[in-house]
Specification:
The protein is α+β, with helices and mostly antiparallel strands. The protein contains four helices and eight strands; from the N terminus they run H-H-H-E-E-E-E-H-E-E-E-E. The strands form two sheets. The chain has a six-stranded antiparallel beta sheet. A two-stranded antiparallel sheet has the order 3-4. It is an enzyme of class 3 (hydrolase).
Length: 154
């Protein structure tokens, strides 16, 4: 196992989710934070608002790509955190439904791991801003699970 994989494994074992998110450059770009879900046993992923994320200046709406990025990276992190052994999730299928414009505020995301098998994990995620009952977007993804040290599917 290489040094990066060992650091990631140590962060996962210590449940240092900030360090786990810090290992993914796009998560760092989005400013992604991982929080405990007070209403359940899962995690909430937060993307703090920044002007650079605005896609439509007139509406002050976030760019749809940043919302999609939040959902995809959150699902990827959720699979990584849920796995008992270090297997890196590589996206092979991703679909998103946008339900409303994301306004100039923080976005939150909650993921649900549907299935995690020997080679594939399936995840759903929902994104909202102020009220979880008024989602901004919903996504589904399939991830290929690969051993961290080989680059091959196990």
């Amino acid at each position: 196992m290489n040094a990066s994989a060992e650091q990631l494994q140590a962060a996962l074992q210590a449940r240092d989710f900030a360090a786990v998110a810090g290992a993914i450059p796009y998560a760092v770009f989005l400013g992604l934070a991982v929080e405990d879900d007070r209403n359940g046993d899962g995690r909430i992923y937060r993307m703090p608002f920044r002007e650079a994320l605005v896609g439509n200046v007139r509406l002050q709406a976030l760019h749809g790509g940043t919302v999609a990025g939040l959902l995809e990276v959150s699902m990827q992190l959720d699979v990584l955190i849920a796995e008992s052994q270090l297997r890196l999730p590589y996206p092979v299928d991703f679909s998103i439904d946008y339900w409303r414009s994301a306004q100039a505020r923080d976005c939150l995301c909650r993921c649900r791991l549907i299935r995690s098998g020997r080679r594939i994990a399936q995840v759903q995620a929902e994104c909202w801003q102020d009220d979880p009952d008024k989602p901004v977007a919903f996504a589904r993804a399939d991830f290929l699970l690969r051993a961290a040290d080989s680059g091959e599917a196990d």
